[in-house]
């Protein structure tokens, strides 16, 4: 993820889910497309982390190309991450926010890990009191 896109994503983080959904519906480049199936290309069967194979790279390139000029890409990605947060990995499909399903799985996993860490910190006994 580019630094610029990461900064934009950070700026939409504070927006409500309803606002994000509305922006995507109103301005998404894929909304009303004559070929909506383009955002659901056949997924590579292998999602191994051990070296990316060509099918994964091509899928990710397709995602960047399809969503590259979308004016609400950051909003769309943030919305996808919220909607997919509680889903099992096998339910992630299609291109959203310029990201392939396995890329969003990684982002969601990172969010879950951060949330668990924060929750653990809040429930930990106060070490300052002895
Ligand atoms: S970022 Fe991609 S998937 Fe999301 S609304 Fe835009 S074109 Fe559609």
Key features of this structure:
binds iron/sulfur cluster, 130 residues, 5 helices, globular
Low-confidence stretches: none
- List the total number of helices: 5
* Percentage of residues in helical conformation: 40-55%
- Rg value: 17 Å
> Which percent band covers the strand fraction?
under 5%
The bound ligands are: iron/sulfur cluster
Strand and helix order: HHHHH
Task: Tell how many strands the DSSP assignment holds.
Answer: 0
Question: What is the first-to-last residue Cα distance?
Answer: 44 Å
Mean pLDDT rating: 88
| Biggest β-sheet strands, sense, barrel | none
The class by helix and strand makeup works out as mainly alpha
Number of domains: 1
- Overall 3D form: globular
Describe this protein's structure.
- The mean pLDDT is 88.
- By secondary structure, this protein is mostly helical.
- The protein has helices at residues 3-12, 17-27, 54-67, 73-83, 101-123.
- The site of iron/sulfur cluster has 15 residues, from helix 3 and helix 4.
């Amino acid at each position: 993820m580019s630094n610029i896109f990461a900064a934009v994503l950070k700026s939409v983080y504070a927006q409500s889910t309803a606002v994000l959904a509305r922006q995507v519906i109103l301005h998404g480049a894929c909304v009303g497309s004559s070929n909506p199936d383009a955002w659901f290309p056949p997924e590579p069967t292998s999602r191994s982390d051990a070296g990316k194979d060509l099918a994964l790279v091509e899928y990710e390139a397709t995602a960047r190309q399809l969503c590259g000029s979308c004016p609400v890409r950051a909003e769309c990605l943030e919305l996808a991450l919220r909607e997919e947060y509680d889903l099992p990995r096998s339910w992630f499909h299609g291109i959203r926010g310029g990201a392939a399903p396995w890329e969003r799985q990684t982002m969601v996993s990172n969010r879950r890990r951060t949330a668990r860490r924060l929750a653990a910190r809040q429930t930990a006994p106060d070490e300052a009191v002895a």
